[in-house]
Amino acid sequence: MKTRKDKAVIIEELKEKFEKAPLVVLTDFQGMTVAESNALRRVLREAGAEYRVVKNTLMRKAYPGTPVEQIADKFVGPTGIAFAFGDIVAAAKALKKFIEEDEKLKFKAAVIEGKVADYEQLKALASVPSREELLGQLAFALKYPVNAIAWSLENLFQKLVFVLENVKSEKETA
């Protein structure tokens, strides 16, 4: 059994995470096995997120004054919390995939960048290209004009050579 001091530490940790996390997702994990919840934690950890299960009474003491206070009515029944601090798109993708693959894990509510979001908004966030894909698209977009200029110059030099050869052949025949 946890002491008051232990509970105070948990409340303080949760409050800090509720304040700093750009993505907080509440889930209902009822019926999940330990192996399934460990798999969820592993998938989210790989995506740079964290999944915690804490008593609702402790969570209720942690959310006042944070963006999560907007979804306070969802802290009912078994509640798990996914926090993402880095790449929220990767975390949203991992969570969406896990929810779709495991019917036992159910979406309750989310706060994305301080605003309440439903499951459709979480899915929309998950459909955004990853950071690496966006960087690749940017690199292509930056590289294209350079390639176009190089191709144009090459084409221009080929035309110049063709014109000079025509002029040379005309002078030789004249």
Automatic annotation (TrEMBL):
Coiled-coil residue windows: none
A Pfam family that the UniProt record links to this protein: Ribosomal_L10
Keyword Glycoprotein listed: no
Record-level GO cellular component terms: large ribosomal subunit
Origin: domain of life: Bacteria
GO annotation terms (biological process): translation
Molecular-function GO term, any one: large ribosomal subunit rRNA binding
Sorted UniProt keywords: Ribonucleoprotein, Ribosomal protein, RNA-binding, rRNA-binding
InterPro entries, per database record: Ribosomal_uL10, Ribosomal_uL10-like_sf, Ribosomal_uL10_bac, Ribosomal_uL10_bac_type, Ribosomal_uL10_CS_bac
Subunit structure: Part of the ribosomal stalk of the 50S ribosomal subunit. The N-terminus interacts with L11 and the large rRNA to form the base of the stalk. The C-terminus forms an elongated spine to which L12 dimers bind in a sequential fashion forming a multimeric L10(L12)X complex.
Family: Belongs to the universal ribosomal protein uL10 family.
Function, as annotated: Forms part of the ribosomal stalk, playing a central role in the interaction of the ribosome with GTP-bound translation factors.
Protein name according to UniProt: Large ribosomal subunit protein uL10
Organism for this UniProt entry: Desulfurobacterium indicum
